[in-house]
Amino acid sequence: VAPITAARNLKESSCEAWPSPLEAHLGHSPFALSQLIARSDAPFFECSPQNVLGWERFLPAEILFDPMAVGLEDTGVQHAVLEALDAVVADSTYASAPGLRAQLLERVVLSGGTSKMPRLHERLQAELKALVATQQGAPAQVKVLPSIEGDHTTWFGASVLAGTSTFAEHWCVHTPKEVELKQDDADADDDDDGMGDKESEESEESEEEEDSADSDGNSDADNDGNSDVDSDDNNESDGGDTQLLPL
Description:
Layout: H1 3-14, H2 22-26, H3 33-38, E1 45-48, E2 51-53, H4 59-65, H5 77-90, H6 100-105, E3 108-109, H7 120-133, E4 144-145, H8 153-162, H9 176-241
Parallel strand pairs: 3-4
Antiparallel strand pairs: 1-2
Helix pairs in contact: 5-7
């Protein structure tokens, strides 16, 4: 059995959530392992003939509510739940739904393999109540429902959603091939735009050359006309200077 599988099985079958912050109950950090193991009041649990767990079986759940105790920068799961609810309420789509936050607080449902730990929903409910009580506004009821199917809950939820009559109108499926085809179409559009710009530039250059040629032709014609006029004027001037001599 892979170590990660053994750890998962042990967590789901033998670990448990203490109903209140464990540090307040013990009088010291539950992650001070030397003190924890030396205690004589451990509620031992025989998970197998070879393995008996004491206080340490409450530590996995304790990390969920106080991750900073083991050096993690994440906030506790109770804060994450409340932030998610507030994000939904702040969404403009639900702005017209009065009392939505209170309704959601009464319908928190656990899912996933970790939710199989006994009393986890009770601990989360207590933590949420304490957190909501520190905020402004009317007190709200908090209800956390335990997981029924454990790590299969998300699958069952997705299957129910996929079975609705309107789901096909909203789904979005992208396979690697579809993504590749869309990228090819986008590249083709870019190439077409580039060819269009190039043709436009060539057309503008051609028009400029035609205008330049017309201008040169008009200039030559004007010069020829002026030259003819000058020649006629010179002839007339020569005729006026001629003198008639008597015979």
